[in-house]
Structures are given as C-alpha cells and as structure tokens.
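Project outcomes to date are best conveyed with an example. Our students and postdoctoral researchers have been running inverse folding experiments weekly, and each run begins with a structure described purely in tokens. The record below, which covers 241 residues, was selected by the lab manager from last quarter's runs and is presented without edits.
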C-alpha cells in the first residue's frame, strides 16, 4: 500500500523514524500485513458492531481491575516493544503458557509485575493483555510505529472516537459506502496528529486525504479496523490509569 495523499502527504521515514507532512511527490511504501483473527473477539461479533463493542468493553473492564502500577507497566512496556514484533510474539507465547518464564526486557517486566500483583493470578490477569497483544499483531509494522507516536502524544482517545465513528455506521456493509468524518472529530487533532491518525487508517485499507474528511468504506477494512479500534480502546484504558 502506498501511504500517499493528493495534496498533503504523511511521510514516514524508516531511517530516522520521523513523521512529517509534505507537499512534494515523495511517498512512503508500507506493506499491509496478513489479516489475522482479532484477539478476544468472537467470530460472530465480526457481523455486529454492538457485539464487538461489548467484547471490547469487557476487556477494558478487565484491565481496569488491575492495579494502577500494573496498568502503567503494561502501557510503558508495550510502547517499548512496538518496534519489535518478535518481542511481542514472545510475550504472547509466555502469557499463553501461563508462564513467568525467562523473558528479558519490557516483556519480562510485564510478566514480573503480573506475578507480583497480589490481587490477580497470572492466569486471570493475562486475558485482556493477551487480547490487546493479539489485536496489535494484526496491525502492520508501520502502524506499530504510528501507534507508538500516538501513545507518546496522548491522542489515543481522539483516534478511538474517530475509528468508532467509521466502524459503527458501516460495520454491516460488505461493499463500498462513502462516509464523511465529523468536524468535531477532526478539530482536536493538530496537523501532525491528524497525519498520524490518517496513516493508521490507511494501514487498514482506507484511502484518506489530509485536506478532506471524506473517504469510502470497503468491506475488506472491517477486520483490521476492528483490531485498530480494540487496540486504541485498550491502550486508552491503560493510559488513563
């Protein structure tokens, strides 16, 4: 997929990992990853947004039951791992095994604090975290980079609301359906923040232009966009802790 805009474009530089907006013809090429099942979301929910929202809400509630310290460590550790897909996979593997394991780095920090949390056994507290990781893994590497910027800039809530505004009315459509983003969803985002957000949407298969709130829904974006929605929703809960 070419992450490009007709007027202004989001350019992601792999070399120095910067995001900028440009008028020229430069383009950044990103490869959209294979579509995978969404963690924690039942297959039947892929046809019903209310069902999807219910599953996401249950994961949010489960995260909220963890202590503030645990949520803080999970948030910062995921941020540190976003640019290393192998570390994310290793953590998922250890959580699936219910193992405190010999995992170093940020993933090991998550396992350690889950074990130390006296209120929850690892087997109980791991589920929402595992579901979050599975949703993150649906996203492409460039989306992971853009997500890291979003976490640092604390724009997850605005992005979550924008993604929901696209998903909810279009979820039932398997074909194409034009839509227009509401001005109140765009207004809180600065120029670079909007470029990052549009980059996340483009990574799901939507064609976005920085100078236009209009785009077209296509059925193929539902699964990756649902994964993005779950990711933003659960990370926002962790950020609020």
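After processing, the design step wrote out the following sequence:
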């Amino acid at each position: 997929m070419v992450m490009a805009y007709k007027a202004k474009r989001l350019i992601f530089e792999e070399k120095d990992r910067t995001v900028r907006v440009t008028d020229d013809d430069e383009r950044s090429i990103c490869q959209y990853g294979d579509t995978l099942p969404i963690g924690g979301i039942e297959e039947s929910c892929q046809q019903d947004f209310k069902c999807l929202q219910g599953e996401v809400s249950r994961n949010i509630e489960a995260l909220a039951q963890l202590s503030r310290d645990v949520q803080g460590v999970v948030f910062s550790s995921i941020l540190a791992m976003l640019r290393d897909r192998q570390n994310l996979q290793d953590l998922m593997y250890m959580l699936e095994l219910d193992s405190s394991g010999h995992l170093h780095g940020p993933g090991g920090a998550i396992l350690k604090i889950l074990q130390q949390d006296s209120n929850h056994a690892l087997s109980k507290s791991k589920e929402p975290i595992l579901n979050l990781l599975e949703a993150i893994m649906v996203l492409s590497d460039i989306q992971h980079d853009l997500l890291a910027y979003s976490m640092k800039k604390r724009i997850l809530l605005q992005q979550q609301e924008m993604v929901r505004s696209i998903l909810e009315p279009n979820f039932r459509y398997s074909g194409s359906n034009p839509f227009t983003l509401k001005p109140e969803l765009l207004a809180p985002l600065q120029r670079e923040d909007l470029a990052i957000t549009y980059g996340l949407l483009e990574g799901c298969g939507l064609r976005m232009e920085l100078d236009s709130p209009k785009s077209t829904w296509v059925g193929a974006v539902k699964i990756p966009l649902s994964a993005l929605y779950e990711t933003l929703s659960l990370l926002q809960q962790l950020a609020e802790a």
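The chain has ten helices and six strands. The CA atoms of residues 63 and 128 lie 6 Å apart. The training component of this project remains on track.
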